[in-house]
């Protein structure tokens, strides 16, 4: 089946899809997701989508206003973020507060949709699309709180919770590449940067033209390649930082564990240490030959344990006096053990 390679959706949102002539791409995506026809009136700017230092690590926001004056945030996130759910809440709250003055009535607050396209496993769940909204349920009757006739006429919604923000989470990497409906066709594109020739989802036909890699101008092509280089560099920085943090954490944990273990072991469990030494001595004795004697194996095991502890403490630059206290070895034995492999 024929496919056409396209630029990534996040890059296109910053460079190509903000043009009014290309609004149909975003309109198609939003219409398929929200299951109703969306017409974008304009792309807005706000504090949450302006370029800044905080935006550099794979953060892309588009704030769109549709023909019903509803607001829609589209955000793409590549790197794992533990507090991302709270970031979603902050994003909708920020959009709301940016558009109301202290003297304005609450009735001017507009409906906000937060659409989050994430390329990491957010939360625990096996689905790849999640929808969240506010529901007011009776604690005794369990019915849903409805708006009054006057409120319905004024705001155009039915339930009280309809006035509050709604959230969509698309976990792209959990999609299995089998497009069962038109929304799946969009998610396939978000995951693979390609559109199959038989896809029928709204907006994908224009996306296939507007976002085609081979249709970029020289200037756009250079900008796209720079963006890819930046993303790869950022991914490498994040990966390196995670690895370094893990190594430092393991090292620190090992040191603290050893110190606590030695202190508690000497105070509470000398007998346990002897038993463990006997066990290791027996194992070493068997390996080297029962003929050398179980008694020698026990002694060797206990000595080996003390030497292992001494070598580790030396690697952590612990003073010789402290090592002598914890192991019972002499200064000469401690110095000699550094040459033992």
Description:
- It is a single chain.
- By secondary structure, the protein is of the alpha/beta class.
- The chain has three domains: 3-215, no CATH class; 216-268; 269-341, no CATH class.
- 49% of the residues lie in helices and 13% in strands.
- The strands form two sheets. Strands 2-3-4-5-7-6 form a six-stranded mixed sheet, sandwiched between helices. A two-stranded antiparallel sheet has the order 1-8.
- Helix 7 (218-268) packs across helix 8, helix 8 packs across helix 9 (294-315) and helix 9 (294-315) runs antiparallel to helix 10 (320-327).
- The protein starts with a strand and ends with a helix.
- The model is unreliable at 47-58 (pLDDT under 50).
The gyration radius over C-alpha positions equals 31 Å
Specify the structural class.
alpha/beta
Strand residues, percent: 5-15%
The CA-CA distance between the termini, in Å, is 60 Å
Number of strands: 8
Largest sheet properties: 6 strands, mixed
Shape assignment: elongated
Number of domains: 3
Q: Helix content range of the residues, please?
A: 40-55%
The SSE string, one letter per element, is: EHHEEEHEEHEHEHHHHHH
Low-confidence stretches: 47-58
